[in-house]
Amino acid sequence: MERIRTSEISSHVGTRIRVAGWLHSFRRLGGITFLVVRDGWGIMQAVAESEAEIAPLLAAEAGLESIIVIEGQVIGTAQAPGGCELHDLSIEILSPISEVPPIMLNKTKLNAQPATLLDHAPVANRHPQRRAIFRLSAGIIAAYRRILTERNFTEIQTPKIVAAATESGANVFQLDYFGRPAYLAQSPQFYKQIMVGVFERVFEVGHVFRAEPHDTTRHLNEYISLDAEFGFIDNHTTVMALLRDVIGFILNSLSENYSPELELLHTRIPTMPAEVPSIHFADAQELILKLHQVDVRGEPDLSPQDERWLGAWAQQEFQSDFLFVTGYPMRKRPFYTHPDPQCPEYSNSFDLLFRGTELVTGGQRLHLHQDYIVTLERAHLPIAAFDYYLEAFKYGMPPHGGFAIGLERLLMQLLGIQNVKLTATFPRDLNRLVP
Amino acid sequence: MERIRTSEISSHVGTRIRVAGWLHSFRRLGGITFLVVRDGWGIMQAVAESEAEIAPLLAAEAGLESIIVIEGQVIGTAQAPGGCELHDLSIEILSPISEVPPIMLNKTKLNAQPATLLDHAPVANRHPQRRAIFRLSAGIIAAYRRILTERNFTEIQTPKIVAAATESGANVFQLDYFGRPAYLAQSPQFYKQIMVGVFERVFEVGHVFRAEPHDTTRHLNEYISLDAEFGFIDNHTTVMALLRDVIGFILNSLSENYSPELELLHTRIPTMPAEVPSIHFADAQELILKLHQVDVRGEPDLSPQDERWLGAWAQQEFQSDFLFVTGYPMRKRPFYTHPDPQCPEYSNSFDLLFRGTELVTGGQRLHLHQDYIVTLERAHLPIAAFDYYLEAFKYGMPPHGGFAIGLERLLMQLLGIQNVKLTATFPRDLNRLVP
């Protein structure tokens, strides 16, 4: 008999079917035993009305998380989760488990400390709420790929072992590359720009590595970056328009295709306004002075408090969870940032704030070889180390720009999760290399 | 005027349009100038019949690879590549280029040594033949994801920084993780198995790192692995059936959707037989004795010559480019390999040969906790180092198995490319960390 997934049971009412999975819960009430089976897609209840039916479980001393196969008759019933359950059971045990799992997997709400969840991730990740987070993560990536592929972007894979730090010398992991030092890529920035010279429009979903020595709820030392970069833009506003569509598509896609997961997590996905409000960095500082009597003019960046104020303003003024801040001062942006031609101390860059916290950074990049030479010299950076990168510009690059979305941070903010580590299956932090 | 991609020109005959891209070639014949523009999707010809039309190019001394924008009238003509060309040109230069590129990008056939192509990858990758290879690479990944998603597999991302070598202590890159040693993942094997405990069916498209100190045409130190792993299998034959469908789907998808790329590379994609022939390892050794009078019985593995003989046999006997060899001896397979229950010195594993060369390895894994303990002890491996991995088995794992496809090797073999490094955009080898 072919195996049926628990998520498909409701279309088999009245027939005898076969399910397989983990023994999710087991309760005896008088002469009746309620079993719940969990498979890769969901859970379903099975009801044994005789001792004979559950005899194989008892004989094998098979406890929770045992791998079992159950055949039974599908009965529609309003009381059962999902509206139906199995009766007249025939049970087979594939892997009996006797030890009690370190995490209670069959409580609707996952009740454990973050450290416990992370230490026991191989088991904790089986909890329906953990699975929901990771399915949403896969959903974000799938939607990201779909919209960019539709927009004629080509997916690329860039090297993760690199000869030099990407953006600065700090916070990179060093490795031994056949006796020479090498580094783990902090970002695909240089390579995605080079690949604009090849395909014009490229994106990457890949690991990036940051050796930041901070153990906080906001830091991961390895995470997934959703990068995009494309040519023949007017300026950073072309990039912002794409980003708006990309985030909007992701949000819609989650709302439409992941209702069960969102229900399990008691979350609603926000919507993206057709027009995202936007404010220039300098105007944002003026606004903060006006609204809060705090003078941050002259500061080269926004503080978390500034961002919260701006987020509240966007909410109140435009009923928008999202706000673009544009034109960050050049001195706080990386060397490849394109200046604002009208006002070169400001840049053609932006941050996208979500509910008062930075979600995505992006902008226009320099595209003329000579501009790179001047900028690198001014920054006292060693031009020779950038030779391979500069070769792309030496032989023709269009005006271009892009952005990078941190997958885990996006999940954290969308789902209101307090600790970014809980958005990854097996996070890496200052003290955690296993599991 | 909105920009049109070169690949879309033929639907605009008779109208005035705008294209933008790289100046791919420039030839003056008498009073007429033929320009070819290359954009991210293809090339198109533009014809200037007056000096005035090309005056901006001459004034800027804009050579090949300059970034230009051309407006013109689309004229249908059999002689032009793609069947149409632009006339009555108005040309604008975005980035003039004066230096001659180190690679001739406008010759149909790419004529350069591999070392030159790799040293100058930022420019060489722009050649239409190089682009075709990378588009096919993206096409393989997209098809891989599509078929597995349709089969209810969930995409995962597993850690690339790990506490210990995955399969053995050899050939791993070591890095400094905040003062402690850590390693780059050789494969997602352990994590994908753990995640079978979560989602049952998982796949990953990700970087793997191998510190093999060989500089050959077959080695890459960083490559993309297409991994899959799934539970509730009967044995390795369930895995083989999936692999057949996956490779078959990839091949069909390339044939159907990538004709221009395949034409540029003068390649035809093979087809996957409905039934892939299969031979047991022991029978393969007997066959080699019978056909070639060479006695390799007792050898623990097949040599490249053995594989070529078997490939020729599959071709002759079954007209198949593909052949499964099953049941490799346990002593040459990794510790998590499931033995053949009938004959425990052989394994429930397989290799898929393509035209006499190994293409994919896979098989069934152990799934009982106790079997892992016994196997690790027998192999004198430190059980404590595997604690996090063993936790998955301690709390219930179904019979499962999977495979790993090396993306670059698959491309190399499908396209008949002699050097695997030429299938990657920016390959890493013993001596190459840039570009």
List the helices and strands and how they pair.
Two copies of one chain form a homodimer.
Chain A: E1 16-29, E2 32-38, E3 43-48, H1 51-59, E4 67-76, E5 84-95, H2 114-119, H3 121-124, H4 128-150, E6 154-155, E7 161-162, E8 174-177, E9 180-184, H5 189-199, E10 201-209, E11 222-231, H6 236-257, H7 259-264, E12 278-280, H8 281-292, H9 304-318, E13 322-326, E14 349-354, E15 357-365, H10 369-378, H11 387-394, E16 400-406, H12 407-415
Parallel strand pairs in A: 3-5, 6-10, 12-13
Antiparallel strand pairs in A: 1-2, 1-4, 2-3, 4-5, 7-9, 8-9, 10-11, 11-16, 13-14, 14-15, 15-16
Describe the structure.
Two copies of one chain form a homodimer. By secondary structure, chain A is α+β, with helices and mostly antiparallel strands. Chain A has two domains: 90 residues, OB fold (Dihydrolipoamide Acetyltransferase, E2P), CATH 2.40.50; 296 residues, Bira Bifunctional Protein, Domain 2 (BirA Bifunctional Protein, domain 2), CATH 3.30.930.10. In chain A, 31% of the residues lie in helices and 26% in strands. Chain A has twelve helices and 16 strands. In chain A, the strands form three sheets. Chain A has an eight-stranded mixed beta sheet with strand order 6-10-11-16-15-14-13-12, with helices on both faces. A five-stranded mixed barrel of chain A has the order 1-2-3-5-4. In chain A, a hairpin with a 2-residue loop joins strand 1 and strand 2. In chain A, helix 4 packs across helix 6. Chain A is elongated, with a radius of gyration of 26 Å. The interface between A and B is large, with 90 and 90 residues. Chains A, B: InterPro entries: Aa-tRNA-synt_II (IPR004364), aa-tRNA-synth_II (IPR006195), aa-tRNA-synth_II/BPL/LPL (IPR045864), Asp-tRNA_synthase_2 (IPR004523), Asp/Asn-tRNA-synth_IIb (IPR002312), NA-bd_OB-fold (IPR012340), NA-bd_OB_tRNA (IPR004365). Chains A, B: Belongs to the class-II aminoacyl-tRNA synthetase family. Type 2 subfamily. Chains A, B: Its EC number is 6.1.1.23. Chains A, B: Keywords: Aminoacyl-tRNA synthetase, ATP-binding, Cytoplasm, Ligase, Nucleotide-binding, Protein biosynthesis. Chains A, B: GO terms for molecular function: aspartate-tRNA ligase activity; aspartate-tRNA(Asn) ligase activity; ATP binding; RNA binding.
